Predict the structure.
Amino acid sequence: MKYNFDTPINRRNTNSLKWDIAENELPMWVADMDFQTAPEITEAITKRAAHGVFGYTIVPDEWYEAYIGWWKNRHAFQIEKEWMMFCTGVVPAISSIVRKMTTVGENVLIQTPVYNIFFNSIVNNGRNVLQSPLKYDGTAYTIDFADLEEKLSNPQTTMMILCNPHNPVGKIWDRDTLEKIGELCWKHHVLVLSDEIHCDLTAPGSAYIPFASVSETCRKNSITCIAPTKAFNIAGLQTAAVVVPDETLRHKVNRGLNTDEVAEPNVFAVEAAVAAFTKGEPWLEQLRAYIYENRQCVKEFLEKELPEIKLVSENATYLLWLDCNGVSGCEDASGLAEFVRKKTGLYLSAGGQYGRGGEMFLRMNIACPRESVKDGLERLKEGCRAYMQK
């Protein structure tokens, strides 16, 4: 079947967080696609809705089997059923795990620039954010292992939140890098919480490596959060899984999720996930190709029409990380983002909200029809030209 990603979907007046904006604005900020989900998922939800009774829901074997099959076939990782727990979302899981597995006043390490909600999950629970900034050489990102080990060795540091693949820079961490992270965290008694929600949104021909699959050390000392929600655009259905191979850690995580009341599915959460992982692969393959073509469109446009902004070329997520160091007069991209939005209506995310190292960057969501991408690029060009002339 050929899926159509070019047709615009009007999302205004649907209580959409992304599209609750002024009429002339174009939102390319929050990680939410403007595509309808796979029709196989819609069909499963519609069938469930037609039943007409929406009572308390259990997690059946089919849910476990769908996740296990997907990770085995696509990511070469054998997950065991007993390792898995349902959760209403990756963010609720992260917040619950931070509360359960660390103590108030302890440090939780993150590698900035990184998903901004990590900060909330740490600070809102009375823990300290410890930033270990990634190294950027003007082209790509790597880990500063000297800085990382120094901060992991602090006895007050008890957890590291790993973003794999990394949002917003789009980095797929290789096996050697993940293994080294695992060894350092084990050496310094730091638990790894791996957010792998973007794992299926890699460029064609590129694949991510589950952290827990790398070594016995990584498996024993990790908690992994996964979900179909980003890849299949069903975040509003609140469905995810937490994978914990170690029995002792798993018991604690399970108690935390249940204490926080985030371990029970709504009536559509199971059906949607099962349909995604058992019937959604053809749709996802075409989506990945379409997003890659959007990325190439952006790259070519910037090189030709707006060379002051450079695309950081990585292979994961539909979120582009735009280097604005070449924009004259720009000392912080938050001001540029604000100016561009006011001037043209283009709504991008300012990089500073993702922590240290993000100050001169913008994040752009290209999970939308190509005409919208082109519209956004023209607005970006118009806004940047005006900004540099003011």
